[in-house]
């Protein structure tokens, strides 16, 4: 289209470099703007025609996406790892490269979701950060005792009613003071963790698909909330073949020495030296959700039967659990797309 404008943005904390290309690929303007709402909105309101903009995924990308989307024809947020690196790098050249890749259609957009999903993501991150903080404090507390050769297995050490008993086991004032501070920190984090979990799940319950996802085996209110926060909508994925790589459950094969020489001719090796594993480019939290759900779902008879079938066919326990996670991901996508609740009688034993 002759009235299309392509804008590449190299975003930094204070200044954003902007390069504007016309439909023919010629640079129309190059400018630097403060990374603030007012100057950015004023700049894009001044552009005419069908404006398409692109910038890298980063700390400010969600804010920029929501700020600029109403003002332009399209906003593309992309992963910088998916584009080739330039030999010569500068802010101006980076912004121009982004604009040219956008014009040629070589940028793969990242799904950003709507405002409701972004709010759920923030609540989910708050909950997950507090979980990580509690685990960190517990590990540090046990490290104090293990460093002195004092047994501290189990969860008794974390109980408030046994605080004095465990503190009395520490012979030196320094170790005892450190343990006291860690126990105080743990006591302060627990109510915050409970509050964050409550806010996270309450927000997720407002989603129209919450009930059907809660019917899935192995999924409680937290995992369902995480699904809604991470995926947002199941229609991002056409089939399970697109969901599996995103969840880190796609099996990939890496081979070496594919060819050999026989009788002076180069032929393909009949038996390749290859390794199999799960794809590395994925959403780590989503993978954790499905693998955790797979362990919990083994208590369901139909899921257990599927797991036992994998074991009977020669799979190891670890691979069988991965198969269960893949199965749950497939069931989740199908039910979510059709907004139907889980029916155990329809779970078949084949993949």
Structure description:
This protein is an alpha/beta fold and about 350 residues long. Helices cover about 50% and strands about 15% of the residues. It contains twelve helices and nine strands. The chain has helices at about 35-45, 60-70, 90-105, 115-145, 165, 175-205, 210-215, 220-230, 240-245, 285-295, 300-310, 315-340, and strands at about 5-10, 15-20, 25-35, 50-55, 75-80, 250-255, 260, 265-270, 275-280. The strands form three sheets. Strands 3-2-1-4-5 form a five-stranded mixed β-sheet. Helix 4 (about 115-145) runs antiparallel to helix 6 and helix 4 packs across helix 8 (about 220-230). The longest helix has about 35 residues, at about 175-205.
Task: Draw up the topology in text.
Elements: E1 4-11, E2 15-21, E3 27-34, H1 37-45, E4 50-56, H2 61-68, E5 74-78, H3 91-104, H4 115-146, H5 163-167, H6 173-205, H7 210-214, H8 221-230, H9 240-246, E6 251-256, E7 259-262, E8 265-268, E9 273-278, H10 284-297, H11 301-312, H12 317-338
Parallel strand pairs: 1-4, 4-5
Antiparallel strand pairs: 1-2, 2-3, 6-9, 7-8
Helix pairs in contact: 4-6, 4-8, 6-8, 8-10, 10-12, 11-12
Key terms:
single chain, 351 residues, alpha/beta, five-stranded mixed sheet, two-stranded antiparallel sheet, 12 helices, 9 strands, 49% helix, globular
């Amino acid at each position: 289209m002759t009235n299309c404008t392509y804008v590449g943005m190299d975003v930094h904390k204070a200044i954003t470099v902007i390069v504007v290309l016309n439909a023919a690929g010629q640079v129309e303007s190059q400018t630097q703007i403060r990374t603030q709402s007012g100057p950015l909105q004023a700049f894009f309101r001044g552009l005419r025609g069908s404006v398409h903009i692109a910038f890298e995924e980063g700390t400010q990308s969600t804010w920029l996406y929501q700020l600029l989307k109403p003002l332009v024809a399209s906003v593309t947020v992309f992963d910088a790892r998916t584009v080739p690196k330039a030999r010569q790098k500068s802010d101006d050249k980076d912004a121009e490269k982004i604009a040219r890749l956008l014009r040629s259609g070589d940028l793969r957009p990242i799904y950003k979701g709507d405002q409701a999903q972004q709010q759920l993501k923030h609540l989910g991150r708050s909950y997950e950060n507090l979980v990580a903080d509690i685990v960190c404090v517990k590990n540090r507390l046990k490290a104090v005792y293990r460093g002195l050769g004092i047994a501290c297995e189990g969860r008794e050490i974390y109980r408030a009613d046994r605080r004095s008993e465990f503190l009395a086991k520490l012979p030196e004032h320094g170790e005892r003071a450190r343990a006291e501070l860690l126990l105080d920190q743990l006591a302060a984090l627990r109510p915050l963790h409970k509050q964050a979990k409550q806010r996270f799940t309450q927000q997720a319950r407002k989603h129209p698909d919450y009930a059907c996802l809660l019917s899935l085996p192995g999924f409680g209110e937290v995992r369902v909330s995480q699904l809604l926060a991470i995926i947002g909508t199941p229609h991002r994925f056409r089939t399970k073949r697109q969901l599996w790589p995103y969840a880190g459950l796609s099996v990939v094969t890496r081979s070496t020495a594919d060819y050999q020489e026989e009788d002076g001719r180069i032929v393909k090796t009949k038996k390749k030296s290859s390794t199999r594993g799960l794809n590395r480019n994925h959403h780590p939290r989503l993978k954790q959700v499905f693998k955790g759900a797979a362990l919990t779902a083994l208590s369901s008879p139909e899921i257990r039967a599927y797991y036992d079938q994998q074991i009977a066919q020669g799979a190891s326990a670890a691979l069988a659990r991965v198969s269960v996670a893949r199965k749950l991901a497939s069931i989740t996508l199908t039910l979510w797309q059709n907004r139907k609740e889980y029916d155990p009688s329809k779970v078949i034993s084949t993949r």
